[in-house]
Design brief:
Blueprint: H1 2-12, H2 20-27, H3 32-46, H4 60-63, H5 84-91, H6 105-108, E1 126-135, E2 143-152, E3 156-160, E4 169-174, E5 180-182, H7 186-192, E6 195-200, E7 205-210, H8 213-229, H9 236-246, H10 251-260, E8 283-285, E9 288-290, H11 291-303, H12 312-324, H13 329-339, H14 349-364, H15 369-373
GO cellular component, one term: cytoskeleton
Protein name: PH domain-containing protein
Domain PH: 123-228
């Protein structure tokens, strides 16, 4: 059966491989595992593309009937992408060995040979050398590019000091649905001579450089594919909104939800992240900062309503910001609902300022359906 499958593969590659040596290898032992192990090096020797350079055309040293180190599996260090360790792992499945034989050219082309880290990173999607901006020390405070070994997986973008097995991991950027990637632009290439790829994460921003445009595009596409595959990231406020919607007919459960989650209630302190998710690289435009930063600043502005005797100008500023940045409308609605839920003194002048701004928002903007239901 193994010989028949190998013959079919040879036909697909328009080659003719003699299989007398295959029968000899398989019949040399009654042990299926041992026969399978002895067959593999013969198969590789039969094709010159696998390293055997014997004068015997397409037969190699095995087909010629000569003893050769390539027929001894114990001396085979690597058969072009098939380490001895991997061959021995296949022996544990000798009963299913037919599915492991043989390797077609299309499959073989996907077996990459690089320096060391491949077998220790089975989840790696893409890897290679890229340059990244690093900040110098006190004597050299400017940014300068430095070469690192980058590895892209389904969960993160990591970079190492080198490609060896013992190389130290120097940093990692966790990839979520809120991450984003900027495509390389010609302006940066004209100024620096490099094509730049910018990856925005929650805490870090990696600016990567390469001299080749096709390599930069390859990395951008791979990164975007990983980001798109991620499930939408939800904030704690969104998750609690779902719980409230599911239990809106149970007052006791609702009281427990509000009691156990201060993020839903009035707070006199600041917030350090938006109540709703925003892409990490989302820019406000028109002189504004990023959406995440603007959302946090707006909450601080809302809290100033409690201290002002005439809050009209501040309210106008909030409305103008929402007009310029429509993506923040839902966020401001959530912040106002939060500050009008269980205030210290219900109906006090400070509490009424929040209600007045909530009324102005309701007359001026329409929230999305989930926020409207909330």
């Amino acid at each position: 059966v193994m010989g028949k499958q190998a013959e079919q593969t040879a036909r697909s590659r328009h080659e003719k491989i003699p299989f007398a040596f295959c029968k000899r290898a398989l019949g040399a032992s009654t042990n299926p595992a041992q026969s399978f192990l002895s067959f593999l090096p013969c198969f590789y020797c039969a094709d010159p593309s696998y390293g055997c350079r014997s004068p015997a055309a397409y037969g190699g040293c095995c087909a010629a009937g000569k003893a050769s180190p390539c027929c001894d599996v114990t001396t085979v260090k690597r058969a072009r992408g098939w380490p001895v360790k991997k061959l021995k792992n296949h022996l544990n499945y000798a009963g299913k060995a037919m599915r492991s034989l043989p390797v077609t050219e299309e499959t073989y082309s996907l077996i990459t040979e690089n320096c060391g880290r491949m077998q220790h990173e089975p989840d790696a999607i893409l890897k290679g050398w890229l340059q990244r901006e690093v900040r110098g020390g006190i004597k050299k405070p400017w940014l300068r590019p430095r070469k690192y070994w980058f590895v892209l997986t389904e969960d993160s973008l990591d970079y190492y000091s080198g490609c060896e097995e013992t190389a130290q991991r120097l940093g990692s950027l966790v990839l979520t649905s809120l991450c984003s990637v900027l495509w390389p632009d010609k302006q940066t290439y004209k100024e620096t001579g490099y094509w730049a790829v910018t990856v925005f994460g929650r805490k870090h921003c990696y600016r990567l450089y390469t001299e080749h445009l096709n390599e930069a595009v390859h990395w951008v596409c791979a990164l975007q594919k990983v980001i798109i595959s991620k499930a939408p990231l939800q904030t704690p406020t969104q998750l609690l909104m779902h719980d409230i919607e599911e239990n809106h007919n149970s007052p006791e459960i609702l009281d427990q939800i509000y009691h156990n989650n201060p993020i839903l209630r009035y707070t006199a302190g600041p917030i350090y992240a938006p109540l709703l998710p925003f892409p990490y690289a989302a820019q406000g435009g028109q002189g504004y900062a990023g959406l995440c930063d603007e959302a946090v600043k707006l909450f601080h502005s809302l809290q100033q309503l409690e201290e002002l005797q005439d809050p009209i100008l501040l309210m106008q500023g909030v409305l103008q910001t929402c007009h310029d940045l429509p993506a923040l409308v839902d966020e401001i609605f959530c912040q106002l609902v939060k500050q009008t839920t269980e205030p210290p003194i219900p109906g006090a002048p400070t509490d009424l300022c929040y209600w007045q701004l909530l009324v102005c928002m309701s007359y001026t903007f329409i929230p999305s359906v989930p926020i409207l239901c909330y």
